[in-house]
Amino acid sequence: MISTLFQPLPLTVGGLVLVAFAVALRRRTRRASYSLLLPAAVLFLAALDDWYVTTHEPEANIRVDVALLLALMLITTLAGIICTVVFAGTSRPSAGTGPQSPLPHETAAQ
Fold it and tell me: What is the largest CA-CA distance in the chain?
């Protein structure tokens, strides 16, 4: 099961999905969208690592880097999801809302 998922293509697709979620959430929240980019970066790093090892060192059957990267992916993905859920209610102010201060030439005329 792990050998099926820990390949460059599924890892890259997972990273792209997280980046797509981050871009979609960027319109509503500022802080929550950035918390999904760290797990996406870890997935891209794992895809790059797996591609390198399978391409340049095909005889490596015991890989300690997989255990380290799986733990890193688990921790950053859970932290990213939790931060996204916790900070989902904090929306950034839009340009057209809220009180606006008068422009300098308007205050001089009064």
Answer: 80
